[in-house]
């Protein structure tokens, strides 16, 4: 998901985050409902005499919760691109900026290329260093991001 905010005539901020179908309470409800159904079936089988089903159901729920945790952590990624007349600032992180790149706009170029699988790669380049942006986006969102950044650069150059 891409969100562009115009701070002033010569400063723009782009917020990027992965698409996520489950957020907040819905995540907890989904995992809880699966765990309730699985453990409910396991308890019934336990009382019928299949004792080993209960520990394996618990193990299954633990693995499921771990998988969802890792997925939800991945979907919490955020990127913030600030483009002004003077500077380009890129911040990446999950809950806070864990990575920050700042460079003068006159020394920075916006690169659009395709990788070996013909997927778009968007990056800012300065002094031989490439900083990839929107790596987690799908192709449609990458095209939208490319167009938005191109429009911003066009506005700032005029």
Features of this protein?
alpha+beta, 2 domains, elongated, 3-stranded antiparallel sheet, single chain, 158 residues, 32% strand
Q: What would a concise description of this structure say?
A:
It contains three helices and eight strands, in the order E-E-H-H-E-E-E-E-E-E-H. With 158 residues, the chain is an alpha+beta fold.
Structure commentary:
The protein has 158 residues and is an alpha+beta fold. The protein has 2 domains: 2-18 and 81-157; 25-74. Helices cover 41% and strands 32% of the residues. It contains 3 helices and 8 strands. It has a 5-stranded antiparallel beta sheet, covered by helices on one side. Strands 6-7-8 form a 3-stranded antiparallel beta sheet, covered by helices on one side. Strand 3 and strand 4 (87-93) form a beta hairpin. The longest helix is centred in the first third of the chain and has 24 residues, at 25-48. It is elongated, with a radius of gyration of 22 Å. It starts with a strand and ends with a helix. The model has no long low-confidence stretch (mean pLDDT 90).
